[in-house]
């Protein structure tokens, strides 16, 4: 098990990481998710030994490796720009780490074949990496990282340079490769959908700290804070006064009065933030939400409909711009505890 304990790091005199701690178990893929500049890549480099923290420790199976040189930590790295050697063949690139570790030529060849087979590049051994597509180069980089059988595989925005279709294809393949390899993995991205697709567990970084830690489903269903909810794009954030209702609490907002799913204790009239998920509505003549349509955007299986009251919802049809729609909530608003307006 990898343990990261109380990591602190400053950048240009400003705190970047403030007491970050987490663990990664064998076979688990943990995703570091956050906006640009949140310290994700810096944290990855600290774990790999490529950068020093001002405070904190890194352990593997209980043994401290904070001061162990990078080449002795047995950690594989995959970067967004591939970092391949352009003058070497595919096989030579994959074998590079094995050669540095002193593997025999025979064992190198066997392990290169195995690694290339895993990433579906059998037969590419003699090709120059400069002749490969972006997706093929990223597969070579992954094979090179996996070849020495690392204890931890670290991937820093590995799909960021690829187009959407290829990114989705490789993401599915990568998920299968990580599962088959049974290696602990740390995956860095700023893309929420990518994180949800690849991770067993998501750690969201903001303000130098981990502000949410959970499975993709747990994080999506319960963001835990206003910032996290907005970053994930889980839906509309409404503020209003909370009052007791006949069956459940009621939130009175500027755009209407809605039932509230709230496990917390609030004084009557307390100011509360809540999520109105865009998929949790349906058109209904007796609905409690009424507004005119200002914009309609097709998004694969539904239409994203923007409303005059500032909200947006998902509908199966495309209403006309200016059309008045009447909507009913299919589920109560979800309360966000401890949230204040910004």
Comma- or semicolon-separated keywords:
single chain, 342 residues, 2 domains, six-stranded mixed beta sheet, five-stranded mixed β-barrel, 20 strands, 25% helix, elongated
Q: What features would you describe in this structure?
A:
- The chain has helices at residues 40-48, 90-100, 105-118, 134-146, 164-181, 192-198, 216-221, 226-232, and strands at residues 2-11, 14-24, 29-33, 55-60, 63-64, 75-79, 152-156, 184-189, 201-206, 209-214, 236-243, 250-253, 256-261, 270-276, 281-283, 289-299, 302-307, 312-315, 324-329, 333-336.
- With 342 residues, it is α+β, with helices and mostly antiparallel strands.
- The protein folds into 2 domains: 2-224, 3-Layer(aba) Sandwich (Rossmann fold); 235-336, no CATH class.
- Strands 6-7-8-3-9-10 form a 6-stranded mixed sheet, with helices on both faces. Strands 11-12-13-20-14 form a 5-stranded mixed β-barrel.
- It is elongated and about 75 Å long.
- 36% of the residues are buried.
- The model has no long low-confidence stretch (mean pLDDT 91).
List the helices and strands and how they pair.
Blueprint: E1 2-11, E2 14-24, E3 29-33, H1 40-48, E4 55-60, E5 63-64, E6 75-79, H2 90-100, H3 105-118, H4 134-146, E7 152-156, H5 164-181, E8 184-189, H6 192-198, E9 201-206, E10 209-214, H7 216-221, H8 226-232, E11 236-243, E12 250-253, E13 256-261, E14 270-276, E15 281-283, E16 289-299, E17 302-307, E18 312-315, E19 324-329, E20 333-336
Parallel strand pairs: 3-8, 3-9, 6-7, 7-8, 13-20
Antiparallel strand pairs: 1-2, 1-4, 4-5, 9-10, 11-12, 11-14, 12-13, 14-20, 15-19, 16-17, 16-19, 17-18
Helix pairs in contact: 2-3, 2-4, 3-4
């Amino acid at each position: 098990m990898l343990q990261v304990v109380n990591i602190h790091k400053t950048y240009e005199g400003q705190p970047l990481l403030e007491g970050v701690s987490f663990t990664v178990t064998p076979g688990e893929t943990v995703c570091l998710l956050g906006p640009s500049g949140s310290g994700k890549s810096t944290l990855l480099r600290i774990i790999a030994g490529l950068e020093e923290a001002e405070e904190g420790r890194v352990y593997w199976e209980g043994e401290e490796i904070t001061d162990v040189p990078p080449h002795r930590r047995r950690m594989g790295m995959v970067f967004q720009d591939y970092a391949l050697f352009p003058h070497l063949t595919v096989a030579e690139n994959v074998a590079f780490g094995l050669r540095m570790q002193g593997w025999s030529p025979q064992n190198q060849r066997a392990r290169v074949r195995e690694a290339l087979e895993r990433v579906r590049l059998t037969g590419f051994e003699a090709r120059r990496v400069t002749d490969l597509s972006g997706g093929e180069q990223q597969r070579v980089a992954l094979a090179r990282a996996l070849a020495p059988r690392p204890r931890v595989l670290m991937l820093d925005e590995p799909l960021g340079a690829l187009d959407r279709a290829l990114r989705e294809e490789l993401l599915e393949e990568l998920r299968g490769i990580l599962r088959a390899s049974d290696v602990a993995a740390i995956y860095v991205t700023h893309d929420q959908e990518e994180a949800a697709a690849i991770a067993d567990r998501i750690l969201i970084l903001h303000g130098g700290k981990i502000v949410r830690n959970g499975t993709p489903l747990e994080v999506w269903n319960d963001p835990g804070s206003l910032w996290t909810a907005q970053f994930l794009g889980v839906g509309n954030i409404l503020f209003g006064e909370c009052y007791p209702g006949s069956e459940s609490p009621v939130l009175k907002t500027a755009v209407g009065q809605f039932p509230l799913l709230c496990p917390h204790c609030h004084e009557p009239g307390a100011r509360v933030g809540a999520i109105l998920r865009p998929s949790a509505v349906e058109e209904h003549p007796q609905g409690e939400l009424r507004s005119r349509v200002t914009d309609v955007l097709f998004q694969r299986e539904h239409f994203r409909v923007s409303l005059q009251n500032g909200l947006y919802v998902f509908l199966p049809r495309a209403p006309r711009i200016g059309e008045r729609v009447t909507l009913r909530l299919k589920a109560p608003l979800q309360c966000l505890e401890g949230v204040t307006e910004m």
